[in-house]
């Protein structure tokens, strides 16, 4: 247990460093570049915001999700799930108080809160359903973190704004396909990983069902998790 607390402290410190330092520096860099092309306005600000979000996806959510099963850091999901919920709360409080961390938080949505909640729930529920393995939840979380992270970077580079252009989905598939193929052998078969990667990359494109807004931080990991879990049951 002491080892787990030590590892958790290191990982949590890394996540806070990404959120509070690295993503902020990324925001400032990208915003300055956007201002040189778009002018000093709100549009340039949001180019920086969404780039910073994707940096957090990749360096915090994704990296930690990979390290946990790769090095068998935790015996149970209690500590990582709890810290994920703590991060969700830390992201929600600024929305509640109106004191946003401006470099990655958008007052119009709480998607980063959903990201942290899904990360925590997926780690916990996935571990239980997998019979004590973190690989089942890790792969959908990598799709959400690295795959979806790349979509924002590609779209920002091409269009200098938040958009759901298909170029992002293609980039996401190119990242998710090898992740799914190689890592899903820890669960069932490589083909199931490719199917999960394909579905996740497709679903990311859609942000509305009729009049209802949906968050890909929920739909991407949930849909790919279902595919991988069914494949595990059938293997």
Helix count from the secondary structure assignment:
8
Secondary-structure element order, N to C: HHHHHHHEEH
Radius of gyration: 17 Å
How far do the termini sit from each other? Answer: 33 Å
List keywords for this structure.
2 strands, 8 helices, single chain, 235 residues, mainly alpha, two-stranded antiparallel ribbon
SSE order and pairing:
Blueprint: H1 2-38, H2 42-70, H3 78-97, H4 111-129, H5 135-159, H6 166-183, H7 190-203, E1 208-209, E2 212-213, H8 216-234
Antiparallel strand pairs: 1-2
Describe, in plain words, how this protein is organized in 3D.
With 235 residues, the protein is mainly α. The protein is built from 8 helices and 2 strands, in the order H-H-H-H-H-H-H-E-E-H. Helix 4 packs parallel to helix 8. The relative contact order is 0.11.
Compact overview of the structure:
The chain is mainly alpha-helical. It has eight helices and two strands, in the order H-H-H-H-H-H-H-E-E-H.
């Amino acid at each position: 247990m002491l080892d787990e607390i030590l590892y958790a402290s290191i990982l949590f410190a890394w996540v806070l460093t990404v959120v509070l330092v690295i993503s902020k520096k990324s925001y400032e860099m990208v915003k300055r570049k956007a201002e040189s092309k778009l002018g000093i306005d709100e549009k340039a600000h949001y180019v920086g915001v969404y780039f910073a979000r994707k940096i957090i996806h990749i360096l915090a959510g994704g990296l930690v999700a990979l390290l946990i099963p790769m090095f068998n850091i935790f015996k149970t999901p209690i500590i990582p799930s709890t810290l994920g919920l703590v991060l969700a709360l830390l992201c929600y409080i600024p929305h509640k108080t109106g004191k946003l961390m401006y470099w990655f938080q958008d007052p119009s949505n709480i998607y980063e809160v959903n990201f942290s909640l899904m990360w925590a729930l997926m780690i916990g529920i996935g571990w239980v359903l997998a019979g004590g393995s973190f690989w089942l939840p890790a792969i959908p979380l990598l799709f959400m973190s690295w795959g979806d992270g790349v979509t924002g970077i590609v779209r920002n580079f091409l269009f200098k704004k938040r958009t759901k252009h298909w170029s992002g989905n293609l980039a996401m598939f190119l990242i998710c396909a090898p992740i799914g193929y190689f890592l899903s052998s820890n669960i069932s078969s490589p083909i199931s990983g490719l199917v999960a990667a394909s579905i996740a990359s497709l679903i990311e494109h859609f942000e509305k069902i009729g009049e209802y807004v949906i968050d890909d931080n929920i739909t991407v990991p949930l849909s790919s998790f279902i595919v991988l879990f069914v494949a595990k049951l059938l293997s």
